[in-house]
Amino acid sequence: MPRPDQTLTEFLIEEQRKAPGATGSFTALVKDVGVACKRISHLVAKGALGGALGEAGSANSQGERQMRLDVLANGIFRRAVERGGTLEAIASEEMEAPCPIPPGQPRGKYLLAFDPLDGSSNIDVNVPVGSIFSVLRAPEFLQPGTRQVCAGYAIYGPSTMLVLTLGRGTHGFTLDREIGEFVLTHPDLRIPEQAAEFAINSSNARFWEPAVKRYVDECLAGRSGPRGRDFNMRWIASLVAEAHRILMRGGVFLYPRDEREATRNGRLRLLYEANPIAMVIEQAGGRASTGTQRLLEVGPRSLHERSGFIFGAAGEVERLELYHREFNRRAYDAPLFGTRGLFRAGTDA
Ligand code: MN
Ligand code: MN
Question: Over 80: is that where the pLDDT of 83 sits?
Fold first, then answer.
């Protein structure tokens, strides 16, 4: 069992001892990721004083406008991990194609996929942002999330935390700025099972699939509805912040696929957003799904592939999967519980 006063480095060395034949290169890689997160934490904490807020005036490979901090955070990640000799290649939200470690640098056996700054569209309003990362074995990035050897995120909130899993539980470290180290403060996180909060962008309600409409309707119906209790709704619009709240306090998050062209396959990116968050969530006893299948089992076909993403307390996600299975068999026009949906599609309102 990890000790509660452990630094990230001590924790990694202890984990390394448990893995027979480990060479230490993996430990070095996670330490390098930790350094990247510390640097980004320092940069975003400066806010307007750092002179780096606002748009970069450029677009990433998916046509999304980049913030200046997106570009800076991507550079920080690259510099922190490219020279450690642990990686064969990296891939990032901000780069169109995977980038092999430059010639002349030592190479290793791992791949790192990352979202250097998640939630960056909120950075100018001082809402928590984060970094998300996934470690795979070389050489192929297009592997299902079950093959991740490590995954995690950093959240830059009132405190900076690094939350990660090496496949044996999910552990949270808080940045102690006085000594410049991540310290283990939340060993073996478990998602509370009794969920009282759901998070979804309800401005998209008219595009939702029937299973999602039904689930949200039942939450909104509260104590007098089929769930028999009241729910609260949350929406921060920052994946890392939503995932972190769910790890700490339970609940469920949905960014489902819907009927619009742009989000027909979902909005969040599989390789460096959904997969790492899903591994962290599963390792904390939760569940992560596309709605119709376990998210970690999706075989990706492209680097920036998007997916519907539902995660959180296992019972809630199972309920959503059940509703998806049911509505794949028949239409949602006769609510089981005799209450008309509060959120109906625009076409049938
Ligand atoms: Mn993101
Ligand atoms: Mn991002």
Answer: yes
Q: What is the pLDDT of residues 198-252, one digit of tens each?
A: 999 999 999 999 999 999 999 999 999 999 999 999 999 999 999 999 999 999 9
Q: Are 41 and 179 in a shared domain? A: yes
Residues 17 and 113 in one domain: yes
Q: Where a domain ends, among 186, 217, 240?
A: 186
User: Across all residues in the chain, what is the average pLDDT?
Assistant: 91
CA distance 60 to 69: 13
Q: Where residue 255 sits, what CATH number does that domain have? A: 3.40.190.80
Q: How far is Cα 235 from Cα 213, in angstroms, rounded to an integer?
A: 17
Q: How far is the CA of 111 from the centre of ligand 2 (A)?
A: 18
What pTM did the predictor assign? Answer: 0.92
| Ligand 2 mean position, distance from CA 138 (Å) | 23
Cα(248) to centroid(ligand 2), Å = 23
Q: Are residue 25 and residue 54 in the same domain, yes or no? A: yes
